[in-house]
Amino acid sequence: MVNDPRVAAMNLPARVSTSVAIMLYAVLLAALSVGFPLAAHAQTRVRVGTCARTLTAGVGSQFAVAMKMGWFSQEGLDVEVVPLTGSTDCVKFVATREFLVTLPSMEPLAIARQQSVKIKNFYTAYQTPGYAIAVPADSPIQKLTDLKGKTIGVTNMSSAGVIIARALTAASGLNPDTDINVVVAGEGAQPAALLRSKQIDALSQFDTQYALIENAGVKLRILDKRLIERFPSNAFIALEETIQSRAKDLAGFGRAYAKGTIFTIVNPEAAVGMLYEVYPFTRPTGKDETTAVREDVHVLRCAHSAAQARARGRAPLGRDQRGEPARVHGLPAEVGRAQAACGRGRPHDE
Questions:
Q1: Digit-coded pLDDT (tens) for 258-301
Q2: CA-to-CA distance for 185 and 188, rounded, in angstroms?
Q3: Which residues lie across from 151 on neighbouring strands?
Q4: Could you tell me if 256 and 213 lie in one domain?
Q5: 120-137 per-position pLDDT tens digit
Q6: Is the distance from CB of 338 to CB of 176 less than 8 angstroms?
Q7: 118 and 242: one domain?
Q8: Residues 15-68: pLDDT tens digits?
Q9: Is the domain of 256 the same as that of 299?
Q10: Do 308 and 185 sit in the same domain of this protein?
């Protein structure tokens, strides 16, 4: 390449000493590698599944920053991010080896562990639960028992929102089979429209989706979720054997992702800009740049609160809790109570 500084360094005038030329060439290579890792280094391909149909700023920005800054490449990784339909499918696709790593919420993982599926969480990305049941701010629904006879919208039927809706309503004394109606409401503007038209009464989705809905003009109110507040949320999972055999790759992946997370917390506006550059399809249409960035920063900050928060002052998950965080232990039982209440027995029957 004519303007390639590496070529220029190799063609320095003869009067420049060899040692100076070598030093300059090394500096240029180092500078280039910061933003543009050299293709000469072998890269290991890693497919990572995220667990919603759309890649939002709250999930995609960390990946985009790590890619743009070259942090995945520095770990020898070529990361491909693939949006999947929901957390249940994310767990299933790891179990069937279709994906090496996915980023589900912990509820489907807890259920899979009860079925002796050898999958573990190796990196907790969000310390507090993003899922909750929400209603429009002016809704007459004030408590979980008020959901009797109501329709609750989820992103799709493989979403952990289905599990959460059933568990929370069962815990409040309702029968999830007969007292509520769970339907697919979609994402973003779709559930906002359904709430406005009163085709649905409530939502069982998650924080970044709620931010998108509020961006669409519908203010929301979260119903009581103290029952699940102590649980961690989405985490990167892999087969136990993968965690053992590819520990170096997974550690490097986690290190690069962590850098991306820190960057997005410190400079969310720049992170959103990188998101649009790395994943152009995430740029909102029909909005000016200022509005788009402002709204996506709002979504991203919702993800930050889950990544940073320590519910009820609890300590962060430690190394000894990787794989099966202790605070997850009550959730399978809660899901079990939800299904036992409607005569379905063990929590993994559904």
A1: 999 999 999 999 999 999 999 999 998 888 999 999 988 988 88
A2: 9
A3: 181
A4: no
A5: 999 999 887 788 999 999
A6: yes
A7: yes
A8: 334 343 433 334 333 443 444 444 446 899 999 999 988 898 889 999 999 999
A9: yes
A10: no
Integer Cα distance of 190 and 155 in angstroms: 9
HSE (CB half, 13 Å, CA atoms) of 285? 3
Residue at 12 is within a domain: no
Using alpha carbons, list the distances in angstroms from residue 27 to 5, 13, 23, 34, 70.
11, 18, 6, 11, 17
Place of tokens 């995220």: 50
pLDDT tens digits for range 302-333: 776 655 554 344 444 333 333 343 333 344 44
Q: Looking at residue 339, which CATH number applies to its domain?
A: 3.40.190.10
Are the C-beta atoms of residues 212 and 188 closer than 8 Å to each other? yes
Name the token pair of 275.
């998101």
241 inside domain: yes
Distance CA 281, CA 208 (A): 17
Residue 141 tokens, joined? 């629904």
Residue 13, domain member (yes or no): no
Q: Are 167 and 338 in contact (CB under 8 A)?
A: yes
- Asked if residue 238 and residue 119 are part of one domain, the reply reads yes
> In the chain, how many domains are there?
2
Whether 77 is covered by a domain: the verdict is yes
Judged against a pLDDT cut of 60, whether residue 93 lies above it is answered with yes
b (16+ CB within 10 A) / e for 307-317: bebebeeeeeb
Whether residues 213 and 158 share a domain: the answer is: yes
Pick the closest to residue 132 from 202, 77, 192, 185 (CA basis). Answer: 202
Cα–Cα distance, 337 to 244 (Å, whole number): 34
Same domain, yes or no: 109 and 84: yes
Q: Do 237 and 318 reside in the same domain of the chain?
A: yes
Range of the domain at 159: 132-230+330-349
